[in-house]
Give the backbone structure.
Amino acid sequence: MQDASGDMGREMGQKPASEPHRAGAEAPLDRPLVDAEVHVESFRQAREARRLELVEDYVELIADLIGDGGEARQVDIAARLGVAQPTVAKMLKRLAEDGLVQQRPYRGVFLTAAGQALAEQSRERHRIVERFLRAVGVSAETARRDAEGIEHHVSAETLEAFRRFADAKL
């Protein structure tokens, strides 16, 4: 809402957008700021999870495509991920360098033993998170979609707690 001066939200005690925000000025932290080393480790873990997320998504999709049709083609991977084929080609090169896939001319992409193991691990993490979300009342479709992002960002300890909870509830 605008007040008589044209500022949005002034009558509700809010500062106009032109006033600078001071961190913590309105709402002090309900807990002390964690030690810098703890912060560093938390952010390092988050960055590593984001890096691995893409790798895991690719190997899991490749495993699914192979399971469904016997092979995974670059064009199919691009279509399923909603990205351009050159993006897929670049990632497949990286996965091959990491020893997770083998590319065969005119045949498509195949997982190595390490790639297959990573795909199975990722799929199991997804199943656990999805079961947990269903156990706390999330709809099946939403749980499936949300698990796709969450599975990559939970620790082994949290994942085990999710599994125990879901096992007890379902």
